[in-house]
Amino acid sequence: MNRTLLPIRLVFVALCASAGALVCFTNQEWDRYMPMAISIGFLLGILVVLTDVMLKGFSLRGLSAISFGLGMGLLIAYLLQISPLFAGGDPQLLYLVRLALFLVVPYLCIVIALRGKDEFNVLIPYVRFVPHEVDVPLAVVDTSALIDGRLAKICEAGFLNVALVIPRFVLDELHAVADSADPHKQARGRRGLETLNVLRKIKNIDIRIPESDVTKQQDVDAKLVFLAQSMKAKLLTMDFNLAKMAEFHGVHWLNLNLLSKALRPELILGNQLEVELLKPGKDESQAVGYLEDGSMVVVNNARLLIGRQVHVEISSVLPSAGGKMIFARLVSESK
């Protein structure tokens, strides 16, 4: 039980029992019934608390849907009972029909409103608990983007100026991956949870975790696309198939791999860069290092500098199956 709610519930039950005792003080003849009154107040308090516990999974969005459905149902029932259909007839029969209207129509409207609460966007905007005139760009984040890990670094650098929406079903999926018996999946899930913890510690990052679930019959990908459509948000994912699915439904998507490719510097002759030398090259004097995109850098006359970070100048660039093969020389030699 929630530590904050527990004392509130205990105080409420105590107040209910006290109210039962106060009722007896209003009439001296009821003094002998005080133990019974206290017990009734106590039991009523327990009943209300149990009702509260049973409504634990009930969201504000569901309450707004019920309120809307009840209001519409009562309005429709009222309009029907004042219509010419009920202008004449047996008063007792008309009373029963009107009573049935006020019971059946609001019930049907409430059920319809609850079934369509994911599209319900009248009383409370979907997840955006902000005024409509305030334009807050949103990005729905999926599991693959959290597992990738680069999202936290981009947010720390301040280049992603959007509010991140991480649905509850994405967190549940991430926890399921982290609890997997497969060590590979487990490691991926834990990395995603670490990314989430880093994001929570970053200042000035707006993270929103909507509790309400989308239609149960949909898979996670369909839920993400539907959620992004409903919120008019972009989809942040590393899953190519999901990205294409989102594109088909008219949802803009962000891919960190495309961002990484776009930020790669153009390698031309004379450019200088830093590279860590990892192993010897084919020739006796050569050493080999790699750039972040996997391109191989072969540095002449650098065999003795293996294991160190060196400053080199590009002398030639050759395309290869694995990317680009770059030949370079030490900056000290090029001067």
Verbal overview:
There is one protein chain. With 335 residues, this protein is an alpha/beta fold. It folds into 3 domains: 5-115, no CATH class; 138-261, 5'-nuclease (Rossmann fold); 272-334, Beta Barrel (OB fold (Dihydrolipoamide Acetyltransferase, E2P)). Helices cover 49% and strands 16% of the residues. The chain has helices spanning 5-25, 34-54, 60-81, 91-115, 143-148, 150-157, 168-178, 183-201, 220-231, 240-248, 256-262, 331-334; strands spanning 138-141, 163-165, 207-208, 234-236, 253-254, 272-280, 287-290, 296-300, 309-320, 323-330. Strand 4 (234-236), helix 10 (240-248) and strand 5 (253-254) form a beta-alpha-beta unit. It is elongated and about 110 Å long.
Give the termini separation: 72 Å
Number of extended strands: 10
Class inferred from helices and paired strands = alpha/beta
Query: In the CATH hierarchy, what is the class of the largest domain?
Result: Alpha Beta
CATH superfamily of the largest domain: 5'-nuclease
Strand order, largest beta sheet = 3-2-1-4-5
Rg, rounded, reads 33 Å
Low-confidence stretches: 121-134
